[in-house]
Amino acid sequence: MTNGLEFFKQSIGKEAKDGSPSPFGRWLNGKLIEADEGFIKVEYLVRPEFANPAGMIHGGAYAAIFDEVMGMTTFTLNQSEFFAAINLNIDFLRPSQVGETITIQSEVVRAGRTMAHVEAKILGPEGKLRAKASSNLIKTAFPH
Questions:
Q1: At residue 144, does pLDDT exceed 80?
Q2: DSSP secondary structure letter of residue 96
Q3: What does pTM read for this prediction?
């Protein structure tokens, strides 16, 4: 069985729709750019279905991207347990427009015996910070 980090390294350059184990992740359809132990970098095209009525990315879409990628980042630690978010704190700093490509970088700041603390940031195509987040995730068994 391939461990989490190996899986992600083999998936670099691929879109989630082409092999993510996460159904929601496949719908979000990010493109994995980089993976290392405790670190993930993914690009997303801001699609019309991510938008609010003003044509900007909906805060919930930012939250979904953060939650998905921060969870992915814990899999790079190669632990047998699943990490589930117990909170997600987001600062929405700048909007993103439909048609833009945004990049999220996520890093495990601390992985303890039962919890992990992860921080992430979303950057626009010009490299400016659009949003940042932190999350605590707790180890739990995979559901059967």
A1: no
A2: -
A3: 0.94
